[in-house]
diamine N-acetyltransferase (Erinaceus europaeus), 170 residues
Amino acid sequence: MASVSIREAKEGDCGSILRLIRELAEYEKLSDQVKISEEALIADGFGENPFYHCLVAEILPTPMESQEPHVVGYGLYYFSYSTWKGRNIYLEDIYVMPEYRGQGIGTKIIRKVAEVALDKGCTQFRLTVLDWNKNAIGLYKSLGAQDLTEAEGWHSFRFEGEAMRELAGK
Ligand SMILES: CC(C)(COP(=O)(O)OP(=O)(O)OC[C@H]1O[C@@H](n2cnc3c(N)ncnc32)[C@H](O)[C@@H]1OP(=O)(O)O)[C@@H](O)C(=O)NCCC(=O)NCCS
């Protein structure tokens, strides 16, 4: 039977990661927001000072199977900082292709991110989820995550495009 491996992404995975980023955006009904290219993913993740790190879930067929190993999920994260508690890890995206869901792959990715967080001395592992995404919310809660909107009333904000240029006076 095929097995699944959770491993660090390589530069050559960026095409697969981009395909999955698009699938996740479609799932989130926000496809029009995806502007990233494979070139940008390569430059930003695999240069001298990476802006992000990524885990991929890869199906490894048995030698009897004719298929090649293929990437069916990913978790993309980076490091941030809490002035209250120090080093943080932030999971920007997690996605598993529909036909591979419910087999523990998403949980394995999340556990691996927690492991990286502890290895790097992080005190918090954070992520954000859309309010209607009850499956993902249920999964995070079942693994012990706290809903910060519910518990402390945080809202997520962003400056973008014209608003950001105006702020910067550019
Ligand atoms: C959320 C997600 C990454 C979880 O991955 P996964 O590989 O299905 O996760 P697991 O198999 O480890 O466990 C998922 C749990 O959620 C349940 N689940 C959630 N969505 C499911 C789905 N679509 N199909 C099957 N099970 C699902 C399972 O029953 C399981 O619960 P259990 O441990 O009590 O059995 C995956 O469902 C996914 O990619 N969803 C769409 C994208 C998404 O919502 N991403 C998160 C954005 S913040």
